[in-house]
Amino acid sequence: MSSFIKQSLFSLLDKTKGRNKLSCFNNQEKKKKLYLVLDLDHTLVHYIPVSKLSDKEKYLIEEADSRVDLWKFGKRNPEHLIKLRPFLHEFLKEANKLFTMYVYTMGSYGYAQYVLSFIDPDKRYFGHRVITREKSPPHKKTLDLISADQRRVVIVDDHSSVWPQHKPNLLKIANYTYFRYEMMNY
Ligand SMILES: [Mg+2]
């Protein structure tokens, strides 16, 4: 296992350690899986409209057809490119052993389904546990939409401001940026 994956999982476990020690959990509850809520943009992936690529990045449009970590989507203009965060598949595989995982994005349902068709085509990791902006309150995210005891939930997101009520659950991750152009993302 790469040191990156180890470090990420240790951080996650560290975040949940205090929760498992809570005296309010009995032994049976302690054996249950914990829950991991993952953001998409700038956390698991970075996406960009092709029209925003710099001249030096345009070669990536051709590369997208042959790389496993870079895809092109959208039949009409504007097309987009999506780049996976390095070691994403390894991370999901290991985290899936410890957590029941959700995706929670302020992107649209269609966008989330498209990204997940690449990173989780068999719905092995997330199943139908996907929350998008159509269901979420405007401009913020809430664990009220997750069917789990909130004391057992860890959130990984590059934006802390969208989780005003759940800071103790949040592990803020460094923003993953691959393309040069800056877009507003949550
Ligand atoms: Mg984000």
From TrEMBL:
EC class name = hydrolase
> Could you give one GO CC term from the UniProt record?
nucleus
Q: Where is the FCP1 homology domain?
A: 29-186
Query: GO MF terms on file?
Result: RNA polymerase II CTD heptapeptide repeat phosphatase activity
The reactions it catalyses are: O-phospho-L-seryl-[protein] + H2O = L-seryl-[protein] + phosphate; O-phospho-L-threonyl-[protein] + H2O = L-threonyl-[protein] + phosphate
Which superkingdom is the protein from?
A: Eukaryota
Q: Which CDD domains match?
A: HAD_FCP1-like
Catalytic activity, EC: 3.1.3.16
Supply the PROSITE patterns for this chain.
Answer: FCP1 (PS50969)
Q: InterPro entries, from UniProt?
A: Fcp1, FCP1_dom, FCP1_euk, HAD-like_sf, HAD_sf
Q: Which UniProt keywords apply?
A: Hydrolase, Nucleus
As for subcellular location, the record says: Nucleus
Give one Pfam family, short name only. NIF
Q: Which NCBIfam families match?
A: FCP1_euk
Q: What exactly does this protein do?
A: This promotes the activity of RNA polymerase II.
Its protein name is: RNA polymerase II C-terminal domain phosphatase-like
Species whose genome carries this gene = Raphanus sativus
Q: Which gene encodes it?
A: LOC130507283
